[in-house]
C-alpha cells in the first residue's frame, strides 16, 4: 500500500511511503506512480490544533 504525503516536517516536502506485506516500509522522494486511490485523508496542524478529515468514510 502506498501513502502520498505532502507537507513541511517530513524528510521531503512531497514523498511516497510504501508499506510491504511483511510490515516493512520505505520512503521515496516525490510521488511514485502508479497511484490507486482508496481514500483521501487530510490532516492540518497548527500549534496544538489538529484538524483531520477522511473522505473514504464520507467525512
* Shape descriptor: globular
Largest sheet: 3 strands, antiparallel
**Ranges with pLDDT <50 over ≥5 residues?**
none
Helix share bin: under 10%
Mean pLDDT: 86
Q: Which radius of gyration do the C-alpha atoms yield?
A: 13 Å
Structural class: mainly beta
Q: Please list the strands of the largest sheet in the order they lie side by side.
A: 1-2-3
Portion of residues in beta strands equals over 45%
Secondary structure: number of strands:
5
Taken in chain order, the helices and strands follow as EEEEE
The number of helical segments is: 0
Distance between the termini: 22 Å
The structural domain count equals: 1
Pfam families: DUF3977
InterPro entries: DUF3977 (IPR025009)
Protein name: DUF3977 family protein
Task: Walk me through this protein's architecture.
- This protein has about 60 residues and is an all-beta fold.
- The protein has one domain.
- Helices cover about 0% and strands about 45% of the residues.
- The protein is built from no helices and 5 strands.
- It has strands spanning about 1-5, 15-20, 25-30, 40-45, 50-55.
- The strands form 2 sheets. A 3-stranded antiparallel β-sheet has the order 1-2-3, with no helix packed on it. Strands 4-5 form a two-stranded antiparallel sheet.
- The chain starts with a strand and ends in a 5-residue tail after the last strand.
- About 0% of the residues are buried.
- The mean pLDDT is about 85.
Amino acid at each position: 500500500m502506498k501513502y502520498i504525503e505532502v507537507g513541511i516536517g517530513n524528510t521531503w516536502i512531497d514523498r511516497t511511503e510504501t508499506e510491504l506485506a511483511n510490515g516493512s516500509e520505505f520512503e521515496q522522494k516525490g510521488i511514485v506512480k502508479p497511484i490507486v486511490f482508496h481514500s483521501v485523508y487530510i490532516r492540518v496542524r497548527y500549534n496544538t490544533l489538529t484538524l483531520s478529515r477522511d473522505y473514504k468514510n464520507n467525512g
